[in-house]
Amino acid sequence: MTDGAATVLAQLQARRETLATAESLTGGLLGAAITSVSGASRSFRGGVIPYATELKATLVGVSVTTLAEVGPVASRTAAEMAIGVRERLGADWGLALTGVAGPDVQDGHPVGQVFIGISGPDGTTTAELRLGGDRSAVRRRCVAEALAALSAALDRARAVPGSPRPARQET
Fold it and tell me: How far apart are CA 60 and CA 53, in angstroms?
């Protein structure tokens, strides 16, 4: 996980952009991975852990309608979490995680069903994962997959207006 965090932080620092996180099922593991990298404070604004469903609304701005219609484990919820944490923490990028770590099915969602939301200068995207393993494995893989997804999004994204875009390195 630390390698993925280091990669993302290097990309953000090269772009002079910032990141905020909202994580539910991982309970702070994503923020811990990011802050384990020396120099993280140059790009990481902070994170929110809206573990309880109602906190997704009050802390990161997921609409009550979304929570009533699709629940806390859904693509739309992850998207709204990413947008909300990005806006509320004043970051260029928002990365959000919601899902079921286990050990039991939750509201019809199987263990290992995870949604990643990424909100950046070009808009918001989501991804659904189906991860295997026990609770610990699901949480660790979720963080690694989220960091990889953000790294790919950073590679595809245009720079924030006014920020210099780094030159692409050919390999």
Answer: 11
Overall number of domains in the chain: 1
Pairing of strands 93-99, 19-23: parallel
Q: Residue 145 — φ and ψ, nearest 5°?
A: -65, -40
Contacts of 154 (CB under 8 A, 6+ apart): 8, 11, 12, 15, 93, 120
> Is there a domain that residue 105 lies in?
yes
Token pair listed for 99? 């899902």
The β-bridge relationship of strands 113-120 and 44-48 is unpaired
Q: What are phi and psi of 130, to 5 degrees?
A: -125, 100
pTM for the whole thing? 0.92
Dump pLDDT digits (tens) for 99-126. 999 999 999 999 999 999 999 999 999 9
Strand-pairing partners, residue 116, are 97, 127
Which residue would you say has higher pLDDT here, 97 or 171?
97
For residue 85, the enclosing domain spans 2-156
Q: Which two tokens mark 30?
A: 């994503």
**Residue 171 forms part of a structural domain:** no
Residue 161 belongs to some domain of the structure: no
Q: Residue 20 domain-assigned? A: yes
